[in-house]
């Protein structure tokens, strides 16, 4: 009898527990929770993208509960035993406010300027912050790594390019990530290459394109910084575009085509 009473009491307790659990007082374990997102998850997502010839606009979840939005432009070539150059192109006005389509303005400058290279071009969105920030440093380096791993990229021909704020970013990556990029092409940029009046050496070749009448970033300042860096041993070519101002990027396309020839004949030969 004592055992029967004990069993009855225990059954009532267990029933009460289950009733409470169903009412939400006790949380049921979420056996489907996969844990925090990892870089391996990002790799898996990127590797499963079906890239097509032309523009591929991608939104990829990163590790900070946010997304990397970027465009991948695939050339119309046979990739069989044919790895291609990789161009990372950084848009201007990086910190001008949220601009979800800023990375999509590639046709008149990057696509036209690099057309002869049949390169894979990636244009990331800055997420309204400057390119040298930690978040964008992580984004750019991750995109280079992902493209180099899962796309037919010649890792000896990875180039950083940008216009205005993007040009400043291309200077920054040229100076800080020389083990990844083979060359840098900053356009309409302003990047002080000096410390206490002494130029710093940029480790990779740089091709600078700047408008003669750029009122935002005066050409004289840029020329002085370029000269100081050259004096310290940098390999820098500077081309001044006569009559061009800051806010007309499409007008610089022919100068970027010359820079593409420079890559082939000077950097990669």
TrEMBL record:
Residues 1-22 form the signal peptide. Keywords: Hydrolase, Signal. The keyword Hydrolase applies. Residues 142-250 form the Dienelactone hydrolase domain. GO terms for molecular function: hydrolase activity. It holds the Pfam family DLH. The keyword Signal applies. This is Dienelactone hydrolase family protein. It comes from Hwangdonia lutea.
């Amino acid at each position: 009898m004592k055992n029967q009473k004990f069993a009855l009491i225990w059954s009532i307790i267990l029933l009460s527990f289950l009733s409470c659990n169903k009412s939400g007082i006790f949380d049921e374990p979420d056996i489907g929770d996969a844990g925090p997102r990892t870089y391996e998850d990002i790799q898996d997502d990127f590797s499963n993208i079906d890239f097509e010839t032309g523009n591929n606009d991608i939104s990829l979840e990163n590790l900070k509960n946010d997304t990397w939005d970027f465009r991948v432009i695939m050339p119309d070539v046979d990739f069989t035993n044919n790895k291609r150059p990789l161009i990372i192109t950084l848009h201007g006005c990086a910190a001008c406010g949220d601009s979800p389509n800023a990375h999509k303005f590639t046709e008149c400058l990057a696509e036209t300027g690099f057309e002869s290279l049949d390169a894979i071009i990636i244009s990331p969105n800055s997420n309204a912050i400057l390119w040298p920030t930690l978040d964008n440093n992580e984004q750019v380096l991750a995109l280079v790594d992902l493209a180099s791993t899962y796309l037919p990229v010649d890792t000896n021909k990875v180039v950083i390019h940008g216009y205005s704020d993007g040009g400043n970013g291309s200077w920054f990556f040229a100076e800080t990530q020389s083990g990844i990029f083979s060359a840098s092409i900053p356009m309409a940029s302003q990047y002080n290459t000096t410390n206490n009046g002494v130029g710093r050496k940029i480790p990779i070749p740089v091709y600078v394109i700047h408008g003669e009448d750029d009122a935002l970033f005066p050409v004289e300042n840029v020329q002085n910084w370029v000269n100081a860096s050259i004096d310290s041993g940098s390999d820098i070519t500077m081309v001044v575009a006569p009559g061009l101002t800051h806010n007309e990027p499409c007008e610089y396309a022919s100068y970027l085509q010359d820079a593409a020839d420079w890559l082939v004949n000077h950097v990669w030969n």
